[in-house]
Amino acid sequence: MFDDPVMSESTEMEGSGNTNVTESHNPRSRKLRSLVWNDFTKEQKADGSFVAICNHCKKQLTASSRSGTTHLKNHLGICMSSKRLKRKKLVVRRLVLKSTDAKNDGAPGLEHPQFDQELSRQDLARMIVLHGYPFSVVHHVGFRTFVRNLQPQFKLPSYDVVKADCMKFYENARLRLHEVLDKLHCRVSLTVDIWRSGDGLEYVCLMCHYVDDEWKLKKKILNFVPIEAPLAGEEISKSIAEKLREWNIDKKLGSMVLDNCSTSDIVTRELLKSLRPKGFLLSNGDLFCVHSCAHVLNLMVQESMELACELTNRVRNSVQHVKSSQERSIRFQKAAKQVGAPEKPLVLDAPTSWVSTYLMLETACQYQDAFSCLAEWDADFTDFLSSKAWSDAKAVTECLEVLYHVIEKFSATRVPTANLYFNDICGIHLLMKRWCMSPHPIVASMAAQMLEKFEQYWDLTRIVMAIASILDPRYKMKSIEYYFKLIYGDPYEAKARIDNIRNSFINLYNEYALQSANSSKNQALLCYVGNTSGYTSSESGTGGESKTSYRVTLSDTRRGLDQYLQETSSSQPSKSDMDMYLEEAVHPSKEGLDDNFNILAWWKFNAAKYPVLSMMAHDILAIPVSIVPLDSEARTLNQYLSPMDPIIVQGIICAQDWLKDEIEASPTVGPMDALALVSAAAGLEGDDECMMPPNGDEFSPLSK
Predict the structure, then answer these.
(1) Which is nearest to 60 in space by CA: 78, 41, 74?
(2) Where are the alpha helices (DSSP H) in 248-378?
(3) Cα separation values, 420 from 246, 404, 417, 469, 547, Å
(4) What is the mean pLDDT of residues 644-654?
(5) For 167, 220, 312, 547, which has the most beta carbons within 10 A of its beta carbon?
(6) Which residues sit opposite 616 in a β-bridge?
(7) DSSP sequence for 168-210
(8) CA–CA distance from 606 to each of 347, 410, 449, 594, 613 (Å)?
(9) At 667, is the secondary structure helix, strand, or coil?
(10) Subcellular localization, per the record (predicted)?
(11) Residue 13: which H helix or E strand, with range?
């Protein structure tokens, strides 16, 4: 920022020994409130003007009422005398405190913050929970030495005490979360994962997802409970129902994702059997069972890869041949250099992971000419691919590339609201239909199998994703109309499916509208009853006679007038907020910046305008339709957690998950820092310094 030369000339006067200053500022004048005056003295000159004299360098600056104090603060920032004085005061203060502590036999000085043993123990427990350190860290020599040198007064607790402190932290955090969930006015959705310990014990991980009152998307691990193997769907559903009642959220369930559970059909059936009769579910449970679109894509691609196993085996053998010896690797590098292939390392896949197979194919296809050269030089390399085989490999790779980047996009979304995925899934649906007509028979057969599996799951999840898309003000019904006309070639079928989605949306809206109306009436009735209970009765002790005094306020006589006026003043019924929302133009979106649109912030701002729709948005947008599941290896507890008491395992895993949100919300630790802390601890599976494996939704395809 550049200073105005005129202002600089008028505000800074170099003559520190100016003889025009004749008298100090009148003490009766207005009190100087700015802290900057601790470093300046205000004096009045003979001509009546005021100057501010720096107490450190004696420079004079203007001090008129119009000049303010900004220029004084700027001067202090460059005044070296002031800086030297502050450093000197700091050194002196430290020496005084040190001297005082020595005289008081180690007791802290008055200006020292008092050491608190109990608070420090709590901090230690939080650290162990957050980073997944073993409880035995309190016995590690290096840690004990570090703590002793840092704070000699701190008495390190024992293994058992620190374990109890961590469990106490978990219990307190559990009670706070229970209170938060009790106060929620919205529904919560669930994901259920099955984990395994190294000892073969199975765990059910129950996680809830919701949008809070501040329109922030939240997810919390509720329970991590052991289940006896072999897993029975009835036992899992019974355990889930029990935990839902414990958390008091069985009456506010939205949807549930059970993709990582082998008995998901049985679990869903049993839960619906117990919840449907109570009337707790949306649309009588039609929206309860949802499949993660990422899981569906993973499943259909992995199964279709079996049709390409002969081709992928030949590519795998070629890569293994190159990597089998140093001599062959050198030959291959020479061939790659000769044909101008890119300098990228060859990738050898894990056959059970289509993502790693895609990465192997993608790299190998770039070395087609290098493999051909190697076949001419190496007589042992007999299973090289023909030009047609390489053409098929490239065609398969192009299809896998689309699906890979979609999964990668799903994994990278920081706020995975349910509205973000409908367009991409419809696009994949269209591409699979086109791939079925590919000139490469292997691609066509793979696409046909993928399409069959996709449509099987799509029918179960389509309505939820479509409703979420309608609740996106950038698209409303437009995305559905556009894609369905392309996907379903028959205009009548397309129209029927569009109408089906629209009717489902309207029916769900009516359900929320009824709920909203009942809630308003009950609130008014409770308020009225609360006031009419002012018809208080009091019994007098004289002769057992009772006296009843009635108290009715003036506002009670006018109750309902506003509603009556609204109902009778117009012959035309007012439009619902759904009608207004759908009739209004879509929210303009900037090209290429769709991912920056914050739908939760939009609904927070427009909640008053669309009261019923905002209730729907609260519940629908939180449904985790994009969770990218971990593979079975990643869902295995490490060697530190595996032998632990399951109660301790649940306490540590849940407490770490809850503490992560608290750390991310801290003004001194940003979200990226907090995420790095958790991920760093989580990534060292099997290490004594870490206990918690990574979360399922933090999966990245690249990690495979």
Answers:
(1) 41
(2) 264-275, 293-304, 309-323, 326-339, 354-365, 368-377
(3) 33, 17, 6, 7, 65
(4) 92
(5) 312
(6) none
(7) HHHHHHHHHHHHHHHH--S-EEEEEEEEE-TTS-EEEEEEEEE
(8) 50, 27, 44, 19, 10
(9) coil
(10) Nucleus
(11) strand 12-13
- Cβ–Cβ under 8 Å, residues 618 and 252: no
Whether the pLDDT of residue 492 is over 80: the answer is yes
Paired sense of beta strands 289-290 and 253-257, if any: parallel
**Cα separation of 276 and 378, whole Å?**
68
For β-strands 40-45 and 21-24, DSSP reports them as: antiparallel
> Going by DSSP bridges, is the β-strand pair 50-54/60-62 parallel, antiparallel, or unpaired?
antiparallel
Q: 571 or 238: whose pLDDT is higher?
A: 238
Q: How do the domains of the chain map onto residue ranges?
A: 37-67, 118-250+632-665, 293-412, 417-521+602-626
> Would you place residue 404 in the very low, low, confident or very high pLDDT band (cuts 50, 70, 90)?
very high
Q: How far apart are CA 9 and CA 446, in angstroms?
A: 80
Give the whole-angstrom CA distance, residue 378 versus residue 384: 11
d(C-alpha 233, C-alpha 171), whole Å: 29
Across 49-101, the runs of DSSP E, i.e. the strands, are 50-54, 60-62
The CA distance from 696 to 267, in Å, is 20
Distance CA 101, CA 40 (A): 34
236: tokens are: 């899992």
Which residues, 6+ apart, have CB-to-CB distance to 680 below 8 Å? none
CA dist 633 and 235 (Å) reads 24
Give 160: exposed, middle or buried? Use CB within 10 Å, 0-12, 13-18, 19+.
exposed
Most confident of 61-65, 173-177, 333-337, 548-552: 173-177
Cβ atoms of residues 59 and 75 within 8 Å? yes
3-state secondary structure of 637: coil
Beta strands (DSSP E) in 639-697 are none
What one-letter code names the amino acid at 37? Answer: W
- In this prediction, residues 648-670 reach a mean pLDDT of 80
The burial of 133, by beta-carbon neighbours within 10 Å (0-12 exposed, 13-18 middle, 19 or more buried), is given as buried
Place of tokens 């100087």: 32
- Contact in structure between 516 and 615 (CB atoms under 8 Å): yes
The CA distance from 450 to 452, in Å, is 5
Burial class (CB within 10 angstroms; exposed 0-12, middle 13-18, buried 19+) of 310: exposed
Nearest CA to 197 among 167, 221, 226? 226
Work out the angle at residue 593's Cα, subtended by the Cα atoms of residues 592 and 594, and round it to the nearest 5 degrees: 100
CB atoms within 10 A of CB 364: 26
Report d(CA 194, CA 412) in Å as an integer.
23
Residue located via tokens 């907090």: 674
- Diameter of the chain measured on Cα atoms: 120
For 480, other C-beta atoms within 10 Å of its C-beta total: 24
In degrees and rounded to multiples of 5, residue 329 shows phi and psi of -65, -40
Is the previous residue joined to 230 through a cis bond, with omega within 30 degrees of 0? yes
**Helices marked H in 346-421:** 354-365, 368-377, 387-412
Q: Looking at the DSSP assignment, which residues form a beta bridge with residue 51?
A: 43, 62
CA atoms of 227 and 223, how far apart (whole Å): 12
Would you state the structure tokens that stand for residue 682, as one six-digit string?
């989580």
pLDDT digits (tens, 9 = 90+) for 345-395: 899 998 888 999 999 999 999 999 988 888 888 888 888 889 999 999 999
